[in-house]
Design a protein that fits this description.
Blueprint (H helix, E strand, L loop, with lengths): L6 E12 L2 E12 L3 E5 L6 H9 L6 E6 L11 E4 L11 H11 L8 H7 L15 H13 L5 E5 L7 H16 L3 E5 L3 H4 L5 E6 L2 E7 L11
Parallel strand pairs: 3-7, 3-8, 5-6, 6-7
Antiparallel strand pairs: 1-2, 1-4, 8-9
Length: 226
């Protein structure tokens, strides 16, 4: 990428409290457009809370956060969020799930559910319910759900979780293609080495605090550069 990076997410001294427990502690950080950020840290470090705050699903207890220059709740149409737990209905097929969720995006220019399925390498005509999907298929179906509204910012909580080597490689290649399209990706993982080919920067958290931001080498995954 050339020129001055465009900051699309800005956090200033953001804290998120649950009673006396601080899930986020005075976090100040910015994320630039078209880059991939890997959030690292042990369980309880605050990674998922940070993603949910950026997504507008949680409000900061203190501090300020803007996404595309406004509070996150005002730009949810440009944000795609994939939670650690697949937000899918097990009794429905993949395409039935996506058709249902697409019906909830009233007034948004969504892609067709069939297109979203194909984008993540799933067959829209597959008649198996999601309960019979492999873990890798469930992860890809969850990502397809996040892609329905054609978001500019993708927030992915453990997209490589419980995947075998082949499924993880497929997910990595898919995310590389999305990054190459100019999307900004912020994802959490415990597998730094796996995500490294995709990364522009590694953000390490501990006990709700930001510990470091480490710039990565140019992403190595084929097709990963914009």
């Amino acid at each position: 990428m050339s020129g001055t990076p465009t900051t699309i997410v800005q956090l200033k001294s953001v804290s998120r409290l649950y009673g006396s427990f601080a899930a986020l502690r005075q976090v100040t950080i910015s994320f630039d457009a078209g880059r991939c950020y890997i959030l690292l840290g042990e369980n309880g470090a605050g990674k998922s809370t940070l993603l949910r705050t950026i997504a507008g699903l949680l409000r900061p207890s203190y501090g300020e956060i803007t996404v595309f220059g406004v509070p996150p709740v005002e730009r949810r149409d440009r944000i795609g969020y994939m939670s650690h737990a697949p937000m899918l209905y097990d009794e429905l097929t993949g395409i039935e799930n996506l058709r249902y969720f697409a019906s909830l995006y009233r007034g948004r220019a969504c892609i067709a559910p069939e297109e979203a399925m194909l984008a993540v390498g799933l067959d829209p005509e597959l008649t198996r319910p999601v309960s019979q999907y492999s873990q890798g298929m469930r992860q890809r179906a969850s990502l397809a759900r996040a892609l329905l509204s054609q978001p500019d910012l993708l927030l992915l909580d453990e997209p490589f979780s419980n995947l075998d080597a082949a499924s993880a490689a497929q997910m990595l290649a898919l995310l590389a293609r999305l990054r190459a399209q100019g999307r900004t990706i912020i994802l959490t993982t415990h597998q730094r080495e796996l995500a490294a080919p995709l990364a522009d920067a590694f953000v390490t958290m501990q006990a709700g605090s930001l510990i470091s931001v480490e710039q990565a080498a140019q992403p190595q995954t084929s097709g990963a550069t914009a």
